[in-house]
């Protein structure tokens, strides 16, 4: 409903199918009831299967590089789900779909889990950066100590050389 209303508003009431003018949105309870009774599969499972069937499509980049242009996040989601070997066997009525997605779907949701994956990756990278900073500090300290040793040795040699020349 929302999409249709938005489309009609943005296109001055033109029909999305035949482009004739003066279309108006109206709710139809009979149609709404029929739609809510339609049998559907889980859209996440559908996206997963669609991603797997598109996996062989090459586009853009170097040979062998895979990319799903329609949804770049699907590749990440596909990888996350295939790591877990998850499938969703939901087949039910349209009216039950939202409840399924919110409560019982075992597939990773792009909206919910990809940000948490990114946060996890950023935490790992942050820890690696801290470790590298510590290594740099240690190396700088070692370099400073070596430099002080070299200065001490040069001072000693200069002193010895000065004493020998007297």
From TrEMBL:
UniProt superkingdom: Eukaryota
Sections of the chain in a coiled coil: 122-149
Annotated keywords: Coiled coil
Protein name (database record): TRAF-type domain-containing protein
Source species: Reticulomyxa filosa
């Amino acid at each position: 409903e929302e999409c249709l209303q938005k489309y009609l508003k943005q296109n001055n009431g033109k029909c999305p199918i035949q482009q004739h003018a003066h279309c108006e949105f109206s709710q139809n309870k009979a149609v709404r009831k029929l739609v809510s009774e339609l049998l559907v599969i889980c859209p996440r499972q559908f996206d997963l299967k669609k991603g797997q069937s598109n996996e062989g499509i090459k586009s853009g980049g170097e040979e062998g590089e895979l990319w799903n242009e329609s949804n770049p996040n699907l590749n990440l989601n596909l990888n996350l789900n295939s790591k877990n070997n998850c499938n969703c066997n939901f087949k039910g009525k349209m009216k039950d779909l939202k409840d399924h997605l919110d409560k019982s779907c075992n597939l990773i949701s792009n909206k919910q889990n990809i940000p948490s994956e990114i946060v996890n990756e950023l935490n790992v990278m942050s820890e690696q950066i801290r470790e590298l900073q510590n290594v740099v500090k240690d190396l700088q300290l070692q370099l400073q100590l070596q430099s002080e040793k070299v200065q001490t040795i040069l001072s000693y040699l200069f002193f010895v050389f000065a004493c020998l020349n007297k």
